[in-house]
Amino acid sequence: MTAAPHSPVALHSRHQAVLPDWLALYYQRPIELTHGEGRHVWDAEGNRYLDFFGGILTTMTAHALPEVTKAVADQAGRIIHSSTLYLNRPMVELAERVAQLSGIPDARVFFTTSGTEANDTALLLATAHRRSNQILAMRNSYHGRSFATVSITGNRGWSPTSLSPLQTHYVHGAVRTRGPFAHLDDAAFTAAAVADLEDVLGQTRGGVAALIAEPVQGVGGFTSPPDGLYGAFREVLDRHGILWISDEVQTGWGRTGDHFWGWQAHAQNGPPDILTFAKGIGNGMSVGGVVARAEIMNCLDTNSISTFGGSPVTMAAGLANLGHLLEHDLQGNARRVGGLLLERLRAVAAAVPAVREVRGRGLMAGIELVRPGTDEADPEAAAAVLEAAREGGLLIGKGGGHNTSVLRVAPPLSLTVAEADEGADILEQALHSLR
Prior knowledge:
It is built from 13 helices and 15 strands. The protein has 435 residues and is α/β, with parallel strands linked by helices.
């Protein structure tokens, strides 16, 4: 039977005919999402889903948030595009707010269109400022899909080439419950990771430009070190003049609940030198950016612009979204509702032999799946739970490193207690389907 021209099957065939094979789609029978409201989305066949992934942690506040849609429509009715060659009031206003919230003194902000581009810019700034192409990165990390960011990604599933403009040295410490230090307590783990950092620096030649790290690794499966580890790293970095770049593309804007930025769990020696952000601030609009001290941001001695970064429409969306987030204390909601959700997921997982660990903070939860009785990753089980959750009306994500398989749970920060319970019920049934 021939698929109807507007069916998901027909659209999937068209997708395969014109888009790259490596452009991944979720689900054996991919779905087309047509609209959303609050924490829910609908597909082309009329099915309603509770969204626990938010377009990869991007729909941060809510689908079709009235303040954002109005801001976009109002700005589009005036002027959509001008580029950075002209003064741009929404860009200046959002930069002022982000600079103040960043915690970085004498901060300057440069807007991009994505987290990849933000991290690429941070690498450009760090290498230019330090006159070095050597970068420290964390094992199991992910920082984007450009040529430069792929070259510092420590997760082989997302690093398609070994060719690189940078010399990258990988450091232990971002994964608490796997690897050679997993058996240690937090203090000993941190000390061992610091010793490893010192040892890696002993292998480098000349000055290293920067350490780039995600406070909570996103694609890597929501893994994180003990609180304070990157602050301890900072003592070593400062001795060598090495910059610290905090990749807040997934952890920023209060998602972790305890803090507005992920770096604040490691703040004993001050803020990072450079902070990158994206995803949630635009609530679906293409907004990314870099915050850095003026001496670092202004180190470039050539012309540079951004055609699309900081566009009036995306800046208007970011301002409206950030205002809503702060006014409604969505960070506090992430802490409260996220804490309840994590407790519930841990209770569910206790009865499922395939679950090795439930980890996370705020509204970032990772459920690591293994073959029962082993520490061996089970990607087939992750795929099966993803499908079963979808059949139950819940959208989640997945991730993990070379030896892990993790379900990723990251709803909009406005999630209600009732919706958290509903999602946990669906996940419980999906996990029990593994038996």
